[in-house]
Design goal:
Length: about 270
């Protein structure tokens, strides 16, 4: 008991050596407990189906919380009020959040995307400002590769604010192609040519059957729409192929192309 009485009598300022030693022991225990908790969290996340970016954020968040708790518990053991430390953390957190507001917006938007999963890597998406194939979804930005092989980094805050069209989510897509023909062209011949173009395009699915509708009567031309279904992966090949075949069949059938124009008649009253 004499040794412990000696330790209790030794002090550094207002801090006794025994209290300092007990704080060190508590700190070591907290660190060991934190490592065990981190290992359990990692093991749990490894069995889940969460995105890697989301897993990394959860692990980092758990580490920050554990270190904050360690600091508070250790400070309490040294006689420092924990409420004061919590208040200091709150003020520091508020200052940091105000200075990195945009970064935090992108961070929470990234978490929203990772949780709700409106798209995944490999999907072709269209937004208000960009379109392309999703390469990866990180916490702060989404990486897209455009059809002309450019890599675009879109802030996640912009992604969640805009309308997103996922073109790869379904197995098939409908192709809508619009064609113009003059009023002199026989409507039956136009529809026949478009149906033949659909039948000769091997990527067009037979069911449901292709549909041709007259959509509107414009100034100087009649507007037709060809609607077919294709596999999602064949969309653009079918789109361009149908345009080529329709143009060829229009020429073969003598269907005149149409364009917007205005007829001007000059009247001479003399």
């Amino acid at each position: 008991m004499g040794f412990f009485d000696f330790l209790s009598g030794v002090s550094i300022g207002s801090l006794s050596l025994s209290r300092l030693l007990s704080a060190v022991v508590i700190l070591v225990i907290c660190i060991v407990a934190g490592k065990i908790i981190n290992a359990l969290v990692r093991r749990f996340l490894a069995k889940s189906k969460l995105e890697r970016a989301l897993e990394g954020f959860i692990v980092s968040a758990v580490k920050v919380v554990l270190w904050m708790l360690t600091a508070i518990i250790t400070a309490e053991s040294l006689g420092i009020p924990g409420t004061s430390l919590i208040a200091a953390f709150s003020v520091a957190g508020l200052a940091v959040s105000l200075s990195v507001q945009n970064i935090l917006s992108n961070l929470f938007s990234g978490l929203t995307i990772l949780v709700t999963k409106p798209f995944a890597a490999g999907d072709f998406i269209e937004t208000e400002n960009a379109s392309g194939t999703v390469q990866s979804v990180a916490l702060f930005h989404t990486v897209l590769k455009t059809p002309d092989n450019k890599v675009v980094y879109v802030p996640n805050g912009d992604m969640t604010k805009s309308h997103i069209s996922n073109c790869s989510r379904e197995d098939w897509r409908r192709v809508d192609l619009f064609f113009r023909a003059s009023f002199d062209s026989d409507a039956a011949e136009v529809k026949k040519a478009l149906l033949q173009a659909a039948s000769e395009e091997e990527r067009v699915l037979p069911e449901p059957a292709p549909q041709i509708v007259l959509t509107s009567l414009e100034d100087g031309f009649v507007k037709y729409c060809l609607r077919v279904r294709v596999k999602t992966s064949d969309y653009w090949d079918a789109y361009f192929g149908l345009n080529e075949k329709a143009r060829e069949l229009f020429e073969r059938a003598g269907i005149k192309p149409a364009y917007e124009h205005m007829n001007v008649h000059i009247q001479n009253d003399r």
